[in-house]
Structures are given as C-alpha cells and as structure tokens.
Amino acid sequence: TTLPDTSIFESLESEVRSYCRNWPAVFDKARGSWLVDESGREYLDFFAGAGALNYGHNNPVLKRALLSYLEGDGITHSLDMSTTAKRRLLETFEDTILRPRGLPYKVQFPGPTGTNAVEAALKLARKVTGRSSIVSFTNAFHGMTLGSLSVTGNAMKRAGAGIPLVHATPMPFDNYLDGSTEDFGWFSRLLDDAGSGLNRPAAVIVETVQGEGGVNVARPEWLRALADLCKERDILLIVDDVQMGCGRTGPFFSFEIAGIEPDIVTVSKSISGYGLPLALTLFKPELDVWSPGEHNGTFRGHNPAFVTAQAALEQYWSDDHLEKAVLAKGELLHRAFDELSRGFRGLSTRGRGLVRGLVFDDASQAGKVAQYAFEHGLLVETAGPQDEVVKLLPPLTIAQDELQHGLGILVDATITVCA
Ligand code: PMP
C-alpha cells in the first residue's frame, strides 16, 4: 500500500507542530471503531481519541441527537447561562450516575478540557483548605497547563514549561516500591515530623489507573488506604477520572471498584461521548466556597456537547449492559495478552477493563509493535516514561470480531518484533 503524501503538514513553519509523528496518514472519515484516510485505507482504532471516544466515532445515537438539536435551532454557546440542554444533562447525570451511586456531588463546568477540570480541582482544594501544596504520584499525568503540569510526574512533559513549576510533592504510586507503602504510615510520620520539610498538603491527586504513565494499576486496597489517610489527616482527595472515567475500567467512575468517595472528581474526555470538548469538576457540597466569577471561562456552555453527553448517559448508563460488556471484553484482552507475555521474556501485561498495556522491558520493541500495527491497519499509542508500554484503549462499544481482529494484529506484531 502507498501511504498518502503528508509533506504539507511537515513543512508548515509553525512553532507548534502541526503534523503527527507516529502516523504518517491524513485521516478523513471515521465511524464506530474505524478511521479511513484520504487514500481510502481503513484503520481499526485502539486509541479512540486517547479515551475521548469511548462510544466510537460518529456514534449513530449521539449523532441523531446532535443533528436534531442543531436542526431545531438549539442554542450552541451560552457561557454559564442556564439552558434547556444544560438542565437536561444535569438531570440525567443526577438520575443515571450520581443518585444510583449515592454520590452527593455538585457539578461544575470548569472549561472545555481535562486540564481545566484539574485546574479547578486544585484551585478549589487550595481555597477550601487555605493550604497551598498538593501531593501527586510518580508517573502521574494531569494535563499541560501550569497547575496540572506541576502535579504531572513526567520530566519530558514538565520541560515544556522551561523553568521549575509550582511546588508539588511526589509520592510513590502503588507498586512503585515494593508494596510496603500500602499503609502510608511513612507519610503520616513525615506529616508529624517538623523537620521533614513536608508542608501539610491541601490535597492529594490520583489516577486509579495511570494512563499516560504507562497503564499503572492501583489496587483497590491501596486506594482505600489512601482515602483513609486523607480523611484522617484532613487532606482532600481528588480522583482524576479524565481518562479512566466514563466506563473505561468498567464502572462509570473508576474509583467505584475501591468503594471510596473522593472529595473532588475530574471528568472529561468521553463525557460528551462524541469527541466534543466538555469537562466536569465534581465536588462535595460543603466544598462549594467559590464566589461567582472566581472560576470562569468563555467555553463552559458548549450546548452541543451537553446534548451528546445527555444522550450518551441515557443510552449507555441507564443500565449495566455497557459495564458488563467492558469487563467481559477486558477479560478477553487480559487472557490473550497474559498468554502472549508468558511466551516472551521481558514482556508483561497490566490493565483494568478496557485499558490494557503491553509492557516491554526493551522500550524500542514497544515502538516497533506500534509501527507494525500501523502498517497493518491498527492504531495504538505507546505510553510510560520511556514509551515502553503499548497502550490499548479500544472504544467500549467495539464489536467482538473487531476486538479479535486488532488482537490478532498485536499478537503478530509482538511475535515479529520479539522473536
Ligand atoms: N488527566 C488525565 C488523567 C489525562 O489522561 C489527561 C489527558 N491525557 C488530562 C488530565 C488532561 O486532559 P486534556 O488533554 O483534555 O487537557
């Protein structure tokens, strides 16, 4: 197959890169789990907009809702005004997500993207507690703006800011050491020791599965111990569910597996369900200390995104069909890659639900597997500090035969690269 000419993208003289380093193709159309490039070549999508397309491309149910809204002259942009579309989304979110789980959160629209949700969470925690420092985890990723970047572990990404960022304290993620961090006794000791140099933090921010960090999975008991620590020491717990929320790990919120109730939750990526920008910051009612206008932004009233979000909640979260399907398909991936990794030294797998990592001791092999996959019509990204993990994020709605097809390519890729 001849690949399309991408030279115009590479030659654009821009400080911001406007071409894609991994995938030399010009994509044109997409439906379900598939993308099509300008030459008509089809690609199975195990990337799904980095988790923003959990219900697939151009999901027909969401598309219908969007088109009928636009055709009826529904309002598109409304800042923080009250609109019918916003009310319908809030009512559906309450009915399908919050009330059935007994979660008491207030919902804020902090701005269009995940990093906006994280910034709002960090700001709120600082304002509520009157304390400034935030604890985050090794290999965490929370976004690219200054506050969220400050709590992101990856040195390469932090280098984008040039100089040191707002001070934040790193803590070892689950399994980063040897499992001895589980009871967090060491952290309590640091807090009590006036000589340790640790300021009492306003909040701890955590992903239950670190996506960009390389599919590092926190055990439920570790998450519970962390939540207990935060409660005992009066530190707010923020769960960043931007990538792992909206059913990626099975349940709507990824922290449900641990039975914890974070003080603040960030949601974005797949909440609109259609790839439209939308973010939510959820917080306990008693944390609602903001005065009007203290956290605002022009694009908080993206009504077409409210419409598709509402349709997605109604379609996929009124019952537990999707959650069960995610767990079943995830189990299929888990078994296949577990068996594959037993066949090769230096290969392992980890994940939860429909986020799965293939972890290569030799990072160059992960890149070669992703490259082989691209050449054979499958899009996968690499993640982790050395890009040593092939990260799989297929749409949650992917059909069984599509999943098997992608799986087959990845098995062939691994055998070709590692043999
Ligand atoms: N938090 C997490 C856990 C993420 O994975 C991401 C995006 N990869 C973000 C925050 C930032 O979201 P956005 O890129 O929409 O700003």
TrEMBL record:
- Record protein name field: Diaminobutyrate--2-oxoglutarate transaminase
Keyword Transferase (UniProt)? yes
Q: Which organism is it from?
A: Rhodococcus xishaensis
**Top class in the EC scheme:** transferase
Task: Give the EC number.
Answer: 2.6.1.76
Q: Tell me the NCBIfam families matching this sequence.
A: dat, ectoine_ectB, PRK09264.1
**What Pfam families does the record tag this protein with?**
Aminotran_3
Q: Which InterPro entries match?
A: Aminotrans_3, Aminotrans_3_PPA_site, Dat, Ectoine_EctB, PyrdxlP-dep_Trfase, PyrdxlP-dep_Trfase_major, PyrdxlP-dep_Trfase_small
Q: The organism sits in which domain of life?
A: Bacteria
Swiss-Prot/TrEMBL cofactor(s) = pyridoxal 5'-phosphate
Homology family: Belongs to the class-III pyridoxal-phosphate-dependent aminotransferase family.
| Keyword hit for Transferase | yes
PANTHER family in the record: DIAMINOBUTYRATE--2-OXOGLUTARATE AMINOTRANSFERASE, DIAMINOBUTYRATE--2-OXOGLUTARATE TRANSAMINASE
The biological pathway it contributes to is: Amine and polyamine biosynthesis; ectoine biosynthesis; L-ectoine from L-aspartate 4-semialdehyde: step 1/3
**Keyword field:** Aminotransferase, Pyridoxal phosphate, Transferase
Q: Which GO terms describe its biological process?
A: ectoine biosynthetic process
Q: Name one GO molecular function term.
A: diaminobutyrate-2-oxoglutarate transaminase activity
